[in-house]
Amino acid sequence: MQSVAEFDNVGLRYGTDAETLSDISFKLFPGSFYFLTGPSGAGKTSLLKLLYLAHRPSRGAIHMFGQDIVTMPRARLPGFRRRIGVVFQDFRLVPHLSAFDNIALPLRIAGIAERDLLGPVGEMLSWIGLTERADARPATLSGGEQQRVAIARAVIGRPELLVADEPTGNVDPDMAVRLLQLFAALNRLGTTVVVATHDIHLLQEIEGAQMVRLDKGRLSDPTGSLKYPPRPLVLRS
Amino acid sequence: MRLPFSIPDHDRRLIPDGRLAGIMPWIIAIMLFLTALSAATAVRLGYSVQANSSGLARQATVQLLEPDPAARATDQKRIAAWLERFPGVSAVRAVPESEARQLLEPWIGSAVEDAGIPVPALIDIAFASPPDNAQLRALRIQLVRQTSNARVDTHSSWIAPLLSFLRTILWIALSVLLLLLVATAATVALSVRAALNTHRSTIEIMHMMGSTDLQVARLFQRRIALDSLFGGGLGLSAAILVLVLVGQRFSALGSGLLAGESFPIIGWLLLALIPLAVTGLAMLMARWTVLSALKRML
């Protein structure tokens, strides 16, 4: 089975500092659901940055969708990035765009015609319960609403890989479960999902999800999930 | 119909007007106003230099310094007829004595006739092409054989320093024009760089979503194109107004090297092209600046 992502002995260093990530080796299988856990400063966000192609590693090899992205010319990276949805820890919504325009942004970047994106964006707004606030700018949205917009933006393009950094950190427990349901639904459609979280309870919401733990920049694999193809997911609700 | 540099509403919202537009069209208007004036000066001077080089430089005046009025008139007719046959001469005109006296009036007053001051007989000649030194020497030698009291004044001899001065001014105008274009390009680059910093987070987000460098560059170059066209139109209008006013002043002078000649059509066409050229330059600079900056991002 071709992996979505394959890391081989990867290290990441910022400038001349000590390595933030060391000797990271794993494979992410298509259609699998992973929780990435670990204490603050363990390197979760750095690992996700490598996954969503914001950085190249300082050493080691990374293959995404079967392609070596370490030596890949940067002109080819946008095509790969369009296959990845990202939920940033700090949301990173465009402040002067409405909720609608923020969610539509990946589709517009992909060149989808305006008439073809009204339906999907409207559906997504309805799903996250923000139809009435479609024209609202991020500054006028609550933290939870902003996070929902950020998640909607990440999933609107039906990415092959969804990377989420603490996606439920600012939402109430009910919304957290709804968001996980969305992730699980996407996962059932074939999207590989990687969710970095502190929330240990979240791990129990999705049976079949696999856990990867990072500690001091090194990977541990308590469930052995990285060695085996995924099991079917069951969402507990 | 959508112009190639028109911006869809959603793209316009990505790079809001207030950040890049603002003062930019006005700066471009000022730069273009100065550029158009420099270009107009260069065109006008170039035109004058060319016209004077090819016109006045072909002309010469033969003076007959004969004190006896009757002999002077006879000599003028004879020499004029002889000059018509001289190789290379295309036109000969014996200047009437009254006209010669009018030429002297500004210096010695209207009493020139009453005072009995002899006025040289003048013969204007035009060569088919500007004569070289050998041709002039031959004319002088052969003219002396016709009459001993003749003198040849070439217009090129007195116009040469003036033409040299005009050429210097022309080069200065062209240099100023070039400097203004460089300054415009630098202004655009600085402005785009500032806008890139302002919108860095938006660009990073777009990048992470798979936006290509060209997609980002296009946002900026379209915006700068609109600013340039607006500023260019404004600057050119102001420059044309000034040129028309200055042109009227020149016409009022009534004489001189720069007066009396209308601004050439080709000059107006060149001026009309300046905003388009500046817009193209601004778009190229914006594109280059954005692409250079984005290369530093992964």
Tell me about this structure.
The complex is a heterodimer of chains A (237) and B (298). Chain A is an alpha/beta fold and 237 residues long. Chain A has one domain: 3-Layer(aba) Sandwich (Rossmann fold), CATH 3.40.50.300. Chain A is 30% helix and 25% strand. Chain A is globular. The mean pLDDT of chain A is 86. Chain B is elongated. Chain B has 10 helices and 4 strands, in the order αααβαβαβαβαααα. By secondary structure, chain B is α+β, with helices and mostly antiparallel strands. The interface between A and B is medium-sized, with 27 and 20 residues.
CATH class of chain A: Alpha Beta
What is the CATH architecture term of chain A?
Answer: 3-Layer(aba) Sandwich
Largest interface here, residues on each chain? A-B, 27 and 20 residues
CATH superfamily (homologous) name of chain A: P-loop containing nucleotide triphosphate hydrolases
**Lateral strand order in the biggest sheet of chain B:** 2-3-1-4
Pattern of helices and strands of chain B: HHHEHEHEHEHHHH
**Quantity of strands of chain B, as a count:** 4
Whole-angstrom Rg of chain A: 17 Å
What is the domain total for the residues of chain A? 1
Major sheet details of chain A:
6 strands, mixed
Report the sheet-strand fraction of chain B.
5-15%
**Main sheet makeup of chain B:** 4 strands, antiparallel
Number of structurally distinct domains of chain B: 2
